[in-house]
Structure formats: structure tokens, C-alpha cells
Specification:
- The complex is a heterotrimer of chains A (632), B (178) and C (103).
- Chain A has 632 residues and is an all-alpha fold.
- Chain A has a domain of 30 residues.
- Chain A has a two-stranded antiparallel ribbon.
- In chain A, a hairpin with a 2-residue loop joins β1 and β2.
- Among the domains of chain B are: 82 residues; 40 residues.
- Chain B contains six helices and no strands.
- The longest helix of chain B has 25 residues.
- The radius of gyration of chain B is 22 Å and the shape is globular.
- With 178 residues, chain B is mainly alpha-helical.
- Helices cover 70% and strands 0% of the residues of chain B.
- Chain C is mainly alpha-helical and 103 residues long.
- Chain C is 78% helix and 0% strand.
- In chain C, α1 runs antiparallel to α2 and α2 packs antiparallel against α3.
- The chains are: A mainly alpha (632), B mainly alpha (178), C mainly alpha (103).
- Chains in contact: A-B, A-C, B-C.
- Chains A and B meet through α24 of A and α4 of B.
Amino acid sequence: MNAVVLPVLPPLLAALALLVLRRGGAVLALAGVTSSLAGSLWLLARVADGQAATLLLPGLPEMPLRLVAGPLSAVLAVAVATVGTFVLIYSVGYMKRESGLVRFYAMMSLFLAAMQALVLAGDWVLLLAAWELIGLCSYLLIGFWFQRPEAANAAGRAFLYTRSADLGLYVAVFLLIRSTGTSEIAASLEAGGSASTAAGLLLLLAAMGKSAQVPLQDWLMRAMAGPTPVSALLHSATLVAAGAILLIRSFPLLTPEALLAVGVVGGVTTVAAGVIALAESDLKRLLAASTASQYGLMLIAVGAGVPLAALLHLLAHAAIKSSLFLAAGDFQHARGGTGFDRLEGVGRARPWAFAGFALAALALAGIPPLSGFFSKDAVIASALSAHGVAWLGPLVLAGTLLTGTYMARALRLLWQGSGETGAVAGSAWMGVGIWGLVVPAAALGLAFGPIEAILDLPAREAEGTGVVLLGLIAAVAGLALGWLVSAPRLLGPVYPWAQRGFAVGGGLTAWVGRPAMAVARGCERLEDRLYAAVLGVGRGGLIIARGGERLEQGLYSAVLGFGPINLAVAHLVRVGDERRIDGLIFALVSGVRALGARARTLQSGLIHHSLAISAVATAVALVILFLASLSF
Amino acid sequence: MGAQAFFLAVFGLAAIGFGVAVFRTSSMVRSALALLFSQTAVGCMFLVMQTEFLGVLQIMMMATEMSIMAIFMVMFMMDPGGLGGMDMTHQKRFSIGAGVVAAGAAIAVALLADWGPVTVQAPAAAMQTRELGHELLGRSMLIFETAGVTILTAMIAATAVAIPVQRLADNGDKEVSE
Amino acid sequence: MTAVLIVALLTGAILFGIGVYGALSQTNLVMIMMGVELMLAGAMVNLVAFWRFLHPESYSGQMFVLVVMTVMAVEMAVGFGVAIARFRAIGSVEMEEAEDLKG
């Protein structure tokens, strides 16, 4: 079997098995993800020498589905599988007291399979399909506790935001396929001219949606209503990475104008999201804003023309942020919530989890020799060596500063306070998961060299010491600020606005949502009026019909009435006739009877009467004969 | 002719007289005898009119008949002797009227009709008888035969009618009525 | 000459009239038959007169008289048979009581 399918197939099979069998959730999911990890490592080994493994599957006519594993795809696949493995191990402990586990593990497995497919996709159609699939899984997983209104709301909002942005991806793919005639990604990146600019900008739009860049960052913060493993896997390391991955892969396509746009978006996001993170009062939401900010940094790197730096930061951030989230989940279980007011001093109660959290936080801030230091430096270097260094540079440095600030703030809020907490179920599993990611978070910097060697992205210059120093100063200053100064004082008048997530005039809800609803309501009213009009026409027709019916009934009864009148007349005639005729007949009969009665009197039975009558009759006859004979 | 008319008138009156007497007397036997004499007078009239055969026939027959009638009278009459003095008539006025009318009509016809010439000479008796015989067995054979059959029928009928009803056993069995 | 004829005819007529009277007025059956006898006798007289005085060559007249005589005899015979039967049944031959055929 072609090795390229190895990372994709096991989680897919696990998901299907879970859907069919409806039991053995954790076991099957873990089996699937560990097989995927093994497979992706094997794949990496296979393609390390620069060869690409390809698998063609039948797809649309003249557009077969391709799974292509180059070094970049293999590295990403390993990253996804690693994060997935440790998050699932963690979930065994985290979800100990939850119900609906089969659904959870099935969706996580499905998500992993889709993410691997996206990473390994060699043609646009498969990439689009995988893109949609991870969006679907995100919706389902954010809304895992769909009975809670904020979770259901968040899931819907996430879906809407990312789906709207996906339009860019669709149009871009359409443009590329039309202009190059092929759906193979590598080949389509050769497209030049206006198509590539347009495609590049549209791809940026898609990336903005998935990676929660300004102005679409709000969905990520609300997505924290889902279970923490989901936040750790999807919303720190994989799904949100899809946007950055898309831009990194399509870097050859991006024209300077597109790159400029990328850089702008990334820069604005870095600062804005960082400030929001600083103003947040919920640990997970802080981490979510931080994610958006970090991805802004990655976009800056791409915009600066060094996608390699973005990739390194992506890898480092994946390990760091996921471990931060896992630790936050541990705190959540300990205190029953993620608000900073609840989590005061939980660090003291949960030392191992807090240690991991602190380590990852420092790594994110950029303290050597942790991985974040190396990746952050790469990004700063790329920004400072770019064309737009005038504005990219300050933005990068501001982002770095803010990173340290809010991470220190978080550490402070978690540490300071009383350390009482209840027992936490499944903390062994959770501990394994946390530390399984904290270790790479700390040590990944050492692997950057070999990784750079394998990848076929344009090489970067090594950073100068000035860059290193700048980064370090920014990181330490940030940490100090965050630890020592409270956020309201730090942000000053911006604080309330930042707390609302820099919503301008009500945010997207007011700018997009309400007008859309108003239009919808207007359409509904219009439709109601049309409907009423049609019904009115119909009713008018019915009234006419009824009028006609009544008229017809009148005619009918008139005609019917005529009949009985005729019949009555006929009856009268008949009766009268019968009576007359009968009368005549009966009169005749009675007359004859009377005559007969009179005649009877002649029949006296006496002979002499008969003789007398005979004599008279004879005389009469003789007279008649005599008279007759006279006339002749 | 005169003599003939004279004798004719005499016998005629006799006949009429006896005829009236038939109905005037209340004795049955006398009525029968009166009728006998009336019929005999009629027979004599026949003789006067030189129809000897018919006259003799008439006298012979009537004599026999009336005798038998006298016997029957005595058998069946309520008052054969006529001694009771009952008036045995009904619808007398009508009968008289009818008789008068009938006689009057016949007389009127006899007097008013134009009979034409009267034959003076009559054939001889032998000749008459011979001719009558020829007539009887020649032209009027059918009448002769019919008369014979009729007489036979009458004899049988009269006998049958006169036979009394026969009764069988006295214990109420079927009656045979003729 | 016609006087002879007239006399005979007159006789016949009067006999006939007497016979009619008798037939219609008598209550006794035998008396009625006597009336009928008289009527027939009157007829015979006329017939013979007509033969003798008007058509002596045609013997149909005499034939007719024979027939009338036969009729007289026959009538007498049957009538008496009926009278006997009636007498046996009722006990009298009075025609006043003969209402059997009353309609």
C-alpha cells in the first residue's frame, strides 16, 4: 500500500468503527491516532530524501484526487498526529465524567483523518473537501455540549464565520483551475498574471477565516465554549493552522500585492488580538486571542517573503498552545470553570500542571533555549529583512512584547491566590497528555535545523545577533510588564474596548448580522404580502366561483321547480279527466244497470206476461212490415 | 156459390160460437168439448170448401185430441167440474184488447185488400189427394221428412218429460233425476 | 164470389181473435193450449180459403195446412208432457204460480 495513505486511513477507520459499533470510544480513537502517528513518521522517513509519494484516486472527470506527500506535507502530518495523540490521551482523563463519549471520539477521529487529508492533499478538490470536513467537525465538536446555549451559539457562529471566508477559497480554486486547466496544486501554482493576484487575495480571505485573523477573530474566542481537548487540538494547532498552511503552500503563487495584504492582515491581527488577550478575564479566551495573535505573526512572516519562518513558528506554536490548553483544562476541572476569578491560585494546587503551563508560557514568550525562542527569532528576522520593514518591524516587536505580557499576566493570575481545590478525576491521563506536548514545546528548537534541511522551501538567512537581542528584550520586557502591572492599568482607556474584542459599532453582529436579518425580515414581509395578494386573488376567484355556483343553483332549482309544476298540472288534468271519464263510464254503467233493473221487471217469470209481450211485439213488427211494404 | 157461402157462414158461426163457449164455461170438460165442436165445425168448413182430405183429417184428429184433452183436464184441473165458480183468468182487459186488435187487423186486411178473381171451380177430391200426394212426396219431401222427424222428437220428448222422477234407496243415496 | 172468401176470412179472423184472448187470459196451461189451438184453427181456415179461392192449382197451401196440423198435434203432445211433469212437481198447472223463471 502506498505510504501516503497511512496517516489518513487509521483515524478514518476508527471514526467509522465508532459510528457503527457505538462502543469502545477511547480505545479505538487512540488506536487510530497512534497508527496515524506511526504512519506519518514512516512517511516522513520515506520522503526525507526529497522524493514525493503520490497516490491518485478517481475523482471528477479529468480531475483525479491526489494524495501527495512531500517533505513539507510529511512534517505537517507528523505534527498533526503528535498533537492528536497526546490530546486524545489527555481526553481519556478529561472526559472521564462526561457522557456521549462515542460521539466525541468519533468526531475527533474524523477530524484527524480530515486534517491529515488536507495536509496531504495534492489537488484542490480534495483540499476543498477536507477543508469543509474540518469545518464541519469543528462545528460538531464546539457544540459538543449543545444543550448549553452559549455552546450551540458559538458553534453556529464559528461555522458562519469560517464558511463565509471559505468563499474566497472556492473562487480562488475556480480561478486557478480555469487559468491553468488542472486541479493539481503544484501545477496550478504556476499560474501567473492577474489570476494569481486575485487567487492570492482570495486565498488570504480563506486563511483569515480559518486562522481567526482580524476582523474574523471573534469566532475563535467564542469557540472556547467547547471541551478543552477540542480547543487544544482544533483551535490551537490544527484547524486554525489550516489557513497558515494554505498560505505557506501557495506561497509561489502570491504576488507582491498579495504578500503585502497578507502582511497587513497579519500585523493588525497580531497587535489587536494581543491586546484583546491582555484584556480577557477568562483563561481559555485569553489563550484563544493569543492563538489569533500568533497566527498573525505567521502571516507577517509569509508576507515578508519567508514562509519557512512561518512554518517553524507554526510547529512550535502547535506544541506550545496545545499544551497550554491542556493545562488550562486541568485547572478547569480543578476549579469548575475557566474565569480568572475562579482560577486564583490554582497553580499552587496543581503544581505539575502549572509547571507545564509555565514552561509552555515561557516558550511562547520566546525565552531561550525553548522552541518559541527560535521560531520567534525567525519571524522577527524575516520581518526586519522584508520590504515593508518600516511597518512590519514595529508590528512584530509589538506582537512579541504583547505575547510576553499576557502570558505573564496569566501566570500571575493563576499563581497568586489561595491554593484550595478539589480532587481532579483522570489527572494521571491529563498529566501524560500535558507533558507529552510540553516536552516538544520545549525541545523542538533543536529539531529546526534538520527540518529546514528536509524542506524544499526557500532557505532563509540566519538571524543576526541584533535580531536575537531585540527579540529577547521584547520578550523579557513583556513578561515583566505582565507580571508586575495589572491589565487595566496597562491598557488604560483601551481596556474596556479591548474587553469587548475591539468591536466597532457593535462588531460584525451589527455590521453584518443585523442588516442581514433586516433584509431577511423585509423579504419575509414582502413574501407575506405577495402571499396575501395571491391568496386574495384566489379568494376573489373563489367568491366569483361561489357567486356563479349560487346562480347556477338558482337556475337549477328553478328548472327543477318547473318540473313539479308541470307534473302538478298534468296530475290535475289526469285526475279531472279520469273523474270525467270515470264519471262517464260509471254513469254509463249505472245507467245500463238501471235500465237492466227496469228490464228485469219484465222478467216476472209468469207465462202470461211473456205471452202478452210476445203478442204486442208481434203486432208492432207486423205494423212495421206493413208500413215498409207500403213505401215500396 | 151462394150455397157454399151460406154453409160456410153457418159452420163459421158455429165454430166461433163454440170457440167463445170454450172460455166462457168454467167446467173443464165442457171447455174441451166446446173446443172439440169448434174444431169439428172448422173441419166442416173445410169440407164445404171442397178440401175433403183436409176436412176429414181435421175432424179425425181434433176428435181424438180433444178427447184426450178432456181426460187430461180431469186429471190436472183444480176444478174440473167448474163448480167452484172461481174466475180463472188474469189480465183480462189486456187480453180482450189484444184479441180485438188482432181480429180487427185481420178483418181490416180481409176487407180492404184486393184479393183478385176468385176461382169458382175446385179440383176433384181424388185429384186433390193425388196432387197433394205428389206435392208431399215430390217438392215438399223435405218438409215431409222434417215433419216426421219432428213428430218423432216430440213423442220422445213428451215421453221423457212425462216419466216421473225415479228414487233409489230410501236411506239418502244418490238420486237419479231424469 | 169474393163474398165466400170474405166470409171465410172473417171467420178465420174472429177465431184468431178469440184464440188470442184465450191464450192471454187463461191461468191454466191446458186452457192456454186451447187458445193456441183456436188460433191455429183460424190460420188453417184462412189458408184453406186462400187455396180454394185464389190458388187451387198450387198445393203448397194444402201442404201448409198439413204442417199446421202437425204442429198442433206436436204442441199438444209436448205440452201435455210438460203439464204432467209440472203437476208432479208442484201439484198444479196454474200459470199464476209459475214464477220460477222470475229474473
